[in-house]
Amino acid sequence: MYKLGIDVGGTNTDAVLIDENLNVVADIKYPTTKDIYSGIVGALKTVLEVSGVDRSQIKQAMLGTTQCTNAIVERKNLAKIGILRLGAPASLAIKPMVDWADDIKQVSVAERIIGGGSEYDGKPISAFDEAAAKEFFAELKEKGIKSVAISSVFSPVRNDDEKKAAEICKEVMGADTHVSISSEIGSMGLIERENATILNAALYKVADMFTEGFAQSLADEGITNADIYISQNDGTLMTIDYARLYPILTVACGPTNSIRGASYLSQVQNAIVIDVGGTTTDLGVIQNGFPRESSIAVTIGGVRTNFRMPDVISIGLGGGSIVREHEDGTVTVGPDSVGYAITEKALVFGGDVLTASDVAVRLGMAEMGDPSKVAGISEELCKKALAAMVTLVEDSIDSMKVSSDDVDVILVGGGSVILPEKLAGAKQVIKPDHFGCANAIGSAISKVSGTYEKLINYDEIPRDQALEQARQQAIEMAVASGAARETVEIIDMEDVPLQYYAGHTNRVKIKAAGELLV
Amino acid sequence: MRQIGLNEVEDIARGAALLGAGGGGDPYIGKLVTVGAIKECGPVTLLDPEEVPDDALIAPFAMMGAPTVLAEKSLSGEEYKALFDIMSNRFGKKIYATMPMEAGGLNSMLPIATAARLGLPMVDCDGMGRAFPELQMVTFTIGGISATPMGLADEKGNVVMMETITNKWTEDIGRAITMACGGSVSITLFPMTGKQMKEYGVKGIVTRSQKLGEAIRNVKNVTDKTPEEAFLEFTEGFKLFKGKICDVLRETRGAFNFGKVVVEGIGECKGSQAYVEFQNENLACYVNGEIVATTPDLICLVDTETFNPVPTDALKYGKRVMIVGLKCFPMWRIPEGIELVGPRYFGVDTDYIPIEERCKGGWK
Predict the structure, then answer these.
(1) Buried b / exposed e across A119-130, counting CB within 10 Å, b at 16+?
(2) Domain region containing A401
């Protein structure tokens, strides 16, 4: 049995094949193409050729892709949608998309806020206004709309109104209507959650395109026995059908996959992962085998959302970063880079730009291109450049840590040769095998998960008991998404008191994950 | 008299986050409510306090409860009218203008939305000059003005009018009603005359907030001095410390979150350590074990790069911050003010000494 992992990045499309013991059989890189599809096909053909494995033995195929992010940022291929919010009279003072830019606001043809929703403790705010929902959906149908975003006040606590509205939506508008409900997408914070839901609804055509494209390219290459999965940004997988429902969850899956891949390759469960590319370096944190989530609102294409995203910082340092010596003798590296043109522009490749990679070659840290082309560069200059790069990375390592203790650091990515094997703040720096394709590997070894979130009053139910119930709920949700029960573990837990609030009410969020059932 | 439109609201929100002194709630949700109100009803007239007649009835507007709840279950937009109608009836008099009670944080925004929706002017004045956690903690309490009659309205249409014997009772009963209504309500309180407002209010605070926001936005464009110098100059702030957060400790006591953030010195503060104690807002700052600032002076943590305020619920290890002290409104420094919001009220056992005296001679 083999697993196939593909990761579409900005510069390269990576593909890996992994056997049933999760050993890497082959890993390759292929240039990403503008249409994405031909890059995937190219990567697929190459990895099959290199590995020579029996195609019928490929049982699982995983794809990580940036197409949704690109569609939002470039405002391309977004579908026209309708927006329904349940909660009136609460929240009427903030209309949907009130602070969105005009060019992306165009995705909506109609918005309505009607009765429904709940209080933080699950009590209804007002009765769900079924008649108003029906009327709104009929209007949308009239306008030829095929996708609807539905959100509801406190739906992370209680989402039955959202679910009822989704049912009615399909009854009125047809079973093939795309319905996105907010409780499946975001967490507390109505507006940010609604924003993410709106983006999700607008992405259905993009989702159809990339899921069909991936399935088709696999079929074209004779891979017909494989279950197909898509990477989510929390480091777990979703089925193709689920990805069509919730394409927004693919946003930022790239950094997540590389963090997970790095953890797998080095067999380290808790560490800081540094992924050095051609232009930028991403730093993330692996906690118990999963990426740490960002706790702040995340802006995608100018829209503020609150759905889970890996806590990643990017710095302008990569293999192609340009090195400059200034008049006062100081040396700086980046943030600009020659990017994908490194194989033409870097000195070692016969170009005329001194890059971070040239510095690494000159100092004997890396082998690439023609070392004689950098032999004439002053060693002192290179040492200063290296010191500048190390300072940049060490400062970033420090800001990702949660305490002053030293942590393990894993170095991956094609550009990671520019960094030394000793860094301040690092217990040890690990550079695993196959470090260049960590993200495709991360995609191939992903698990499936479930998340449970609720506001709990500890005066009503003792904390231990409440948390135990919440853990069970999270485990059930992971099993429901396809995890083998005996492999499911709690991977993350938040328990935060509410501000300016008497009593002992905490926001609890628990996440469980396990291996995919084969 | 001048107009407040969408651009002004952006800057006021940014400045209000700084005046929150670590607390007050993220102004974001309030800003959305306000942006919507201004887009539909047009800009708001901001009155200089001196333009308000002595006998005018002023009704401040605020929210009470958990900002986390408001971020989910925001206003219906009917609260303003419900509250102002009941208040107007109670006095048998038309409300002349509204104003903020708390210029720091979320409550800086909602009165602007109120003014826009009701077509009323807003007065450039508040009762704190910053953010504080309890509703009796306003300069008007010092002036002997009662918080009640106070109106509370939830988004469902429930309206409560209450009269109490002390402002502390108002706080306690108000919290109970807030809980019953689902964790957040809109309120109008401290109804007062123009004369009282002028006598006890923190005048010009909305304009100050806007200027602070504008300055933070532009701090990178200053050419004749470093961004840090520019920031300290326009905030008239005292640089208390600069460093890296190395620990954050939290606990909940009663209704409030207590905590302590420990900062390790960088740059000229290298080798020193500071910590700030906070409830929801920052209460006291210690450098090398010595107190350098306490409430009611404002203690603000700002990002060393962007100078954006870092609220207490966003403190995390590794963040580089500058700790800045700002002088509080002078009325807080008289004995009645210290009793209400001084260090001992918040459990910090020390006398209040004004920040400019504690920091004489600059950073040591």
Answers:
(1) bbbeebbbebbe
(2) 268-437
Q: Nearest CB to B68: which of A92, A188, A401?
A: A188
- Which of B205, B222, B255 delimits the end of a domain? B205
Kindly report the CATH number assigned to the domain that includes residue B103.
Answer: 3.40.1610.10
Statement to judge: residues B236 and B189 lie in one domain: no
ipTM of the complex: 0.87
Is B72 in Cβ contact with A188 (below 8 Å)?
A: yes
φ and ψ of A511, to 5 deg: -130, 135
Whether B72 and A502 lie within 8 Å, measured CB to CB? no
**A410, A343: one domain:** yes
Over residues B308-316, mean pLDDT:
84
Angstrom distance (rounded) from CA A280 to CA A393? 11
CB contact under 8 A, A93 and B76: yes
Of B31, B68, B74, the CB nearest to A499: B68
Residue A94 has pLDDT above 80, yes or no: yes
Phi, psi of B97 (to 5 degrees): -160, 165
Is the same domain home to A323 and A229?
no
Are B74 and A93 within 8 A, CB to CB?
A: yes
- What domain count does chain A have? 4
- Chain B CB contacts of A402 under 8 Å are 316-318
pTM of this structure: 0.84
Structure confidence at residue A65 (pLDDT): 85
Distance CA B99, CA B118 (A): 13
| pLDDT tens figures, A317-369 | 888 899 999 888 889 998 888 876 788 889 999 999 999 999 999 999 988 88
Range of the domain at B22: 2-205
Contact B29 A402 (CB under 8 A): no
CA A108, distance to chain mean position in Å, is 25
Interface probe, candidates A272, A392, A499, A505, chain B, greatest B C-beta count within 10 A: A499
